[in-house]
Amino acid sequence: MNNKQVKVYTFTIPANGAFPLLVISDYFRIQSATGAVDVNGDTFGTLPDLLTGQGLENTPYNRLTFVDKSGAPNTVSVLCSGDLFIDNRLYGVVTISGDISLAAATLSAVTDTPKARTLANVAFQGGRVQAAGANASVVQLWNPTAGQRLVVRNITASVGSNASIELFASTAAIAGVATYAVNKNLGGALSLAELRSLANAAVAGTVLATRRLLGNTTEAFDLLEPIVLAQNSGLCVATTGSGINLEADFEFYTEAV
Length: 257
Prior knowledge:
By secondary structure, the protein is mainly beta. It has two domains: 7-87, Jelly Rolls; 122-256, Jelly Rolls, CATH 2.60.120. The chain has two helices and 20 strands. The longest helix is centred in the middle third of the chain and has 8 residues, at 104-111. The protein is rod-shaped.
């Protein structure tokens, strides 16, 4: 470490004007600026059109001159130091240009948070109760809507007596009157996805999981990743035998496709 101080200088450059900064150092970094600036150093020439986060290291200088390129008064904050000042934070407005290799899921995670989905009126929760009948009890979440997919995050089920249940994918809506899940942003519009239930002898679909439940207990299907329902697809919870009360609940959010 040399004996040159680390210091931040803040100043305003007139529109299209210049501001001289008399400082002896080896490193500078623009901490913030209203617009682009040219930076002229007495030892390195001119660096054109610099923006926030840009600068120069390992280059001794005795004077810097900042020239506004924005055409308006330009408030600049610059850090000067005798050694490289490390600051790897991302803050303010981040601009990504050119090709990037980040997965879409990585980028969406920045803004796609549970609270943001609720405030955007795309998060829902709902369930149905199917009374015991002569056939298996089935509760279904069904997506009838074009241009929308359902991302199911949580499924719970309970039975009135000891029973085996199945979670399975379906390609047809079961009969019965549809109800609609409640918006988690209370007061928001109900979901377009349908909740259906029936005592149905013809339970068919691709089984995803099975559970053995004690009566009057609740079981959650643990999902490491969500289950995604495209248009005209459904997710069912069903008993494998007849004469059993069944309740199933679904938590999900919607995405445009």
